[in-house]
Amino acid sequence: MEFLIVGEKINSSRKSVKEAIEKGDTAFIQKLAQEQAAAGAQYIDANAGLLMEKEPEALAWLVKTIQAAVDRPCCLDSPNPIALEAGLRVHQARAMINSISLEANRYDSILALVKRYQTRIIALCIDDQGMPQSADDRFRLASTLIEKLKGEGIPREDIFVDPLVQPISTDSSFGTIALEAMEKIKKAFPDSHLICGLSNISFGLPLRRLLNQVFFILALGRGLDAAIIDPNDPRMISGLKAARALLGQDPFCGGYLKAFRQNLLVV
């Protein structure tokens, strides 16, 4: 499978994006969408969570605004089923939802939307017990999610497992825990996909892009085949192209050579 990139930039946690949503600044949002699509993002993240009670209306506006500018589906990023459905009603083509979990107040309502709108789904490794502490905990939660979703008729290839990447600034073992979990999940469920919000790893630290880039390459070696990232970061994309070539995931280095000819690689 081609590595799947979800462009992360249209997220209301970014001050400029939140202000653009509040003002209805179509041009600003569409420029972000166009830049990410041009850089190779197959999905465009759409997050309006910080708009609180206005989230359903705001998410629907984001979806329509993005899809008026680019021929890309959206990854609708919200735990709120009301907001998600508002976005899905106006979405063209096949969306992705971020995310479902084993939390009782979340699983059934999100699953109903996945079935109704035939979406792809990010399965987040968390339950009502809170944040998983170990790689084994993450593997257990991933296994349960995959089997439950498969039992509901969701094809494994439409399930993107998020092992929950946490900041190494709060616990220096979080990087290795996430990597070990990825390896366990991919080995047991090779037909499912692995995805993560990669930049979480560097939260609270300087030179975040450096940490993100190195963790990205380490994760690729553990089976990561999708990520929510900034596709306009040339070092991140260069690392992706080089790593896939070295890992035997790029037949005859075709993707690497194409990127070279397009002057997309940096060192």
Explain what the structure shows:
This protein is α/β, with parallel strands linked by helices. The chain contains 10 helices and 8 strands. Strand 3, helix 4 (81-90) and strand 4 (96-102) form a beta-alpha-beta unit. The longest helix is centred in the middle third of the chain and has 17 residues, at 135-151. The chain starts with a strand and ends in a 6-residue tail after the last helix.
Question: Key features?
Answer:
267 residues, alpha/beta, TIM Barrel
List the helices and strands and how they pair.
Blueprint: E1 4-7, H1 15-23, H2 26-38, E2 43-46, H3 55-69, E3 74-77, H4 81-90, E4 96-102, H5 104-117, E5 120-127, H6 135-151, E6 159-162, H7 174-188, E7 193-194, H8 208-220, E8 226-229, H9 234-246, H10 254-261
Helix pairs in contact: 2-3, 3-4, 4-5, 6-7, 8-9, 9-10
CATH architecture assignment name of the largest domain: Alpha-Beta Barrel
Largest β-sheet summary: 8 strands, parallel
Helix percent reads 40-55%
What is the name of the CATH topology of the largest domain? TIM Barrel
Computed over alpha carbons, the radius of gyration is 18 Å
In total, how many domains does the architecture comprise?
Answer: 2
Q: What strand line-up does the widest sheet have?
A: 7-6-5-4-3-2-1-8
Shape: globular
Count of beta strands:
8
CATH class of the largest domain: Alpha Beta
